[in-house]
């Protein structure tokens, strides 16, 4: 999946992946996609809830080699 911006949040513990995601998504235009790479397992539920509450769309999430990858479309 193509992304307009990629955020590397690997090695960061909660709440830093969400804090950095919020900052990165604010730099995008509506409709653009942010790809996030994280290793904190708790971020999966946090990102889904954060995206929904902020009016964004979680397009896809996968786990690859212990790295969680998310694609969020800015609302």
From TrEMBL:
**Start and end residues of each UPF0033 domain:** 7-31
Xref: Pfam families: TusA
CDD domains reported in the protein's UniProt record: SirA_YedF_YeeD (cd00291)
Family (UniProt): Belongs to the sulfur carrier protein TusA family.
Q: What is this protein called?
A: UPF0033 domain-containing protein
